[in-house]
Amino acid sequence: MFNWFSSSNKLAPVDRLVKSHQLRPVELLPWAAAIAAYFLFDSYLPLGSQILIMILFAMSLDLVLGYAGIVTLGHAAFFGAGAYAAGIYAVHVSGEPLSGLVVGAVAGAIVGFLSGLVILRTQGLTLLMLTLAVGSLLGEAANKASFITGGADGLQGVSIQPILGLFSFDLFGRTAYVYCGIVLFFAWIFARRLVHSPFGRSLIGIRENVTRMNAIGSPVRGRLLTVYTISAAIAGIAGALLAQTTQFVGLTVLTFERSGEIVIMLIFGGIGRLYGAFVGATLYMIAQDQLSEIDPIFWEFWIGLLLVLVVMFARGGVLGLLDRAIQRWRRRS
Amino acid sequence: MSTTASLETIGLRKSFGALVVANDINFRLEPGARHALIGPNGAGKTTFINLITGRLAPSTGRILLGGEDITSLSQADRVKRGLGRTFQINTLFKGMSVLDNVCLSIGERDGQAGNMFRLVGARPTVIEEAYALLERLRIADEAMTLVKELPYGKQRLVEIAIALGLKPKVLLLDEPAAGVPSAESSIILDIVEQLPQDIAMLIIEHDMDLVFRLARRITVLVQGGVLVEGAPSEIARDERVREVYLGERHHV
Question: What 8-state DSSP symbol labels residue A152?
Fold first, then answer.
């Protein structure tokens, strides 16, 4: 009788899957661009930092929305929690930035874990509404707790010490840009490993078919709660970066608009592919910057129009479009 | 009844209000069994499967897997104890490759699926095992194809492959050839016939040719209750079965 469950010959598909996590040169492109931008667009570095922060935030969203398939309109709750925690930490405890990031991550993770515990029991529209509710609850709480958050005036007096005691934040935003870039780089390495791990694959499985995941004995709710908490921690770090680099935290970090905006950025770039965050956040932020200059009153209209076009004609976002173009080109040649 | 049944239900009952969908079902699946469950539409076959797998909780009664009471266990815990199933309607990871589909279930079985500190490729044994399984089911050529791009007949084989990746002791096959043209269903039949003999198998099926070719024992379910159980020859001769089921379909 032949053996059913093992085979000694290694074959091409096996090899391809074994090597699926290997770094492709194109994956370094964002980093080359980030370094080039530092030298080429010196006067735009503050915008550059904002873009890096939004990439980090969008990447955290991609883990839950793109990979695990949790549709959320409340991701700003974790971003805002991280921003306020890091800001309050800087005002009342210490202006040391790296520990501030940890505080932001922990705050995001706690809010993510506690809310996930409740809302991940549901699915679809109910889940969507609950993410919205968590977002607005937190926003309202930050507004009411003005004795610690500064309420509608925002959190004042955030001052940040030099990073590692060596690099102080400068007026031109150079330090901030490099700081955000390095934090994003490490987060990217972590997220990339995560999506290429068995855990990451099982998230895609949950997205693709939760019924079957249950039927193969997967602890679905635990997996979702884990990734939700991780994602919330990363979003918290993004919020903390914003608080530290702008030395201010306002109620806008927790608004529904911010939750919606980050979803739009990710859709622009393409969901479930890790790099959609890089492309989407960059394009969106630049478009917003340029459009609001050209047309200060109606710039949101143009953003909306862009989104409609992407959703209708470029499913899978800009990266999806690129994918199809490359495939067509390959077939022709 | 000296041996321990691979799967046993005792007085299994499920009702929704006044509607009884499983009526005190006493059922034994022996080790290595090739047991078919047949019955007209709405007889409660899929309900019975859902009770066994834990998708539905019974109103009363007990379910034993290898002699161990699993009535109160979660779906996942039952799978961990060796209960595998396939679905009547394809329930697959459509946007993933065939190989990935099988790797998911193998990963869950060997307890590494939740690991986030290791790369998928760092465990080639899982991938090799998945590939070997695809070879046995003669779909290895499609290993890198996305499931949604496969013809329906081959998707039915992926359905079985995922379940086999769990190395189940008891396998519930819910209409393995459903929706497949009869020319192709013989391939599925061959595959099911060649599955390891030590797996106890319960096959729900409409196709009588398939049932009489595969099954060594048949249970007929009517209106949520067991009408009769016996060897295929006994079932074919049974007047009541002809009336409620076979006669109605003009099939034998």
Answer: G
- The domain tally of chain A equals 1
* Collapsed DSSP state (helix, strand, coil) of residue B230: strand
Q: Can you tell me the distance from the alpha carbon of B196 to that of A262, in angstroms, rounded to the nearest whole number?
A: 51
**Structure confidence by residue, pLDDT tens digits, B102-134:** 999 999 999 889 999 888 888 889 999 999 999
- C-beta of residue B128 within 8 angstroms of C-beta of residue A7: yes
Question: In chain B, which residues have their Cβ closer than 8 Å to the Cβ of A221?
Answer: none
CB of B108 within 8 Å of any CB in chain A? yes
**The domain at B1-82+168-252 falls in which architecture?**
3-Layer(aba) Sandwich (3.40)
Rounded to an integer, what distance in angstroms lies between the CA atom of residue B82 and that of residue B74?
Answer: 13
Interface test with B, best of A210, A216, A218, A223 (most B CBs within 10 A): A216
ipTM associated with this complex: 0.90
**Chain B 201-240, residues with CB within 8 Å of chain A CB atoms:** none
pTM: 0.91
Q: Does B161 touch chain A (CB under 8 A)?
A: no
* Closest Cα in chain B, distance from residue A31 (Å): 22
Q: Which phi-psi region, left, alpha or beta, contains residue A272 (left: φ > 0; alpha: ψ -120 to 50)?
A: left
